[in-house]
Amino acid sequence: GQQLNQSPQSMFIQEGEDVSMNCTSSSIFNTWLWYKQDPGEGPVLLIALYKAGELTSNGRLTAQFGITRKDSFLNISASIPSDVGIYFCAATPPQGGSEKLVFGKGTKLTVNP
Amino acid sequence: EAGVAQSPRYKIIEKRQSVAFWCNPISGHATLYWYQQILGQGPKLLIQFQNNGVVDDSQLPKDRFSAERLKGVDSTLKIQPAKLEDSAVYLCASSLDWATNEKLFFGSGTQLSVL
Questions:
Q1: Alpha-carbon distances, residue B47 vs A10, A96, B37, B106 (angstroms)
Q2: Cβ-Cβ contacts under 8 Å, A42 against chain B
Q3: pLDDT at residue B61 tops 90
Q4: How much of chain B, in percent, has pLDDT values that exceed 70?
Q5: Residue A5 above 60 pLDDT?
Q6: Contact state of B106 with A105 under an 8 Å Cβ cutoff
Q7: Is a pLDDT exceeding 80 seen at residue B100?
């Protein structure tokens, strides 16, 4: 089945540093999404990407839909302590709607003040 | 705007017991999803409803799991009997429409521990 390989698995950074994480697959996807999950909460949508090559920003967050449609990255600039959490990529394949949404295993981010 | 409501937040049961989870989606959202999230993993779809009909339940272990959304609004997910490997967070999510909108809004989840 379609799998998303998310890396790195975890990151430990200092406050103020920039962060980059990515998601790759051997399959093509039509939509890429990035979610953040805080402890004890459900994932919250950060950015949605719908077109190959699309680069979208949301405050300090920037994400891109890879040209090959097989990957995406998320950058966080000037990290702050509240950026701590688990970041998930998710994607939908060309066939089907949101019932086909696949999640990566997440990148756990720790920010040291 | 109220978010997706789930209850209970936590549940501890012994194996072979039954358990039920409840979800109330965002008002006006036609599509409701139940996900299972095992520790250290991303969410995995169990079942998806469009109004009160099932869109996809291909990953639902139907011998022990059941779900319903009788009036097309709130939903219940049941496990009977529970196994140790069912220990996970059960997340409910909703979206406006499954065909055109992948933007899911998640509830806080129910953390289930099966002893």
A1: 29, 15, 13, 14
A2: 4, 91, 93, 106-109
A3: yes
A4: 94
A5: yes
A6: no
A7: no
Nearest-CA distance from A98 to chain B in Å? Answer: 5
* Residue A48: closest CA among B104, B3, B91, B73: B104
Nearest to B43 among A43, A48, A100 (CB): A43
Residue B33 near chain A (CB below 8 Å)? yes
Asked whether the beta carbons of A35 and B103 are under 8 A apart, the reply is no
**Parallel, antiparallel, or unpaired: how do β-strands B65-68 and B75-79 relate?**
antiparallel
Instruction: Record the tokens describing residue A20, joined without a space.
Output: 């980059």
For testing contact with chain B, the best of A99, A105, A107, A108 (most B CBs within 10 A): A99
Average pLDDT over residues B76-94: 97
